[in-house]
Design a protein that fits this description.
Layout lengths: L14 H13 L7 H25 L6 H19 L26 H29 L18 H11 L5 H20 L14
């Protein structure tokens, strides 16, 4: 009599692998997304990350008030979370509500529910970080047009100034990249929703 094959019991060691597989499945680009759009979507969170890296040390510096420290950390986390939503413009969870959304799981995401906020966000981000930021840096003023306060990073020199611009320059791409993704998303959803009558006679039509 041959011994029964040994069956390994599920263990905690295998759970990370399952989590990684679930993560990849949730964020896998849907059909019709080009390689270029994938790279654009993945680039959006990367454009925001350096600014957070520059900003966080200030939150834990000596003499920083608790309220300001909490604000800096919250701003950094929220900014990166918002940037990550750009992945939804190429992934399945941007077209079908995921399982963890109560009452809506598995239902189709209305295109306008994505396109309108994404387009508005792209417009605001482009205005703030691409247009006003560049104009204020050239003019040597705040975004509102006022004088720069003492200690402003724009007044720094040497390596301190170089480090600031290296970290904040990528933010100028956030809005334009999001706009490109939004247009591609709208075109893809429109093409998927339009019925194709190629080579067929439209219903109810007579020649």
């Amino acid at each position: 009599m041959q011994p029964l094959p040994h069956v390994e019991e599920p263990s905690a060691v295998s759970r990370p692998g399952r989590y990684r597989a679930a993560w990849r499945a949730a964020h896998e680009p849907v059909a019709g997304v080009s390689r270029g759009m994938r790279l654009v979507a993945y680039a959006v969170p990367v454009t925001v990350l350096p600014a957070g890296i520059w900003r966080l040390p200030a939150a834990f510096g000596d003499g920083t008030p608790a309220g300001e420290r909490a604000y800096i950390v919250l701003l950094t986390v929220v900014s990166e979370a918002l940037a990550f939503t750009a992945i939804g413009l190429i992934a399945r969870w941007g077209e079908v509500f995921p399982r963890w959304v109560p009452f809506l799981r598995g239902l189709r995401v209305p295109p306008r529910a994505v396109i309108v906020p994404a387009a508005a966000g792209a417009a605001v981000l482009t205005l703030l970080f691409t247009v006003l930021f560049l104009v204020s840096e050239v003019r040597g003023t705040t975004i509102g047009g006022g004088d720069l306060p003492a200690g402003s990073p724009s007044l720094a020199t040497g390596w301190e100034a170089a480090w600031f611009y290296v970290c904040y320059a990528p933010l100028t791409l956030w809005g334009p990249l999001l706009a490109v993704l939004t247009v591609a998303y709208a075109k893809r959803r429109r093409a998927a929703d339009e019925p194709s009558y190629s080579g067929r006679r439209a219903p109810g039509r007579s020649d």
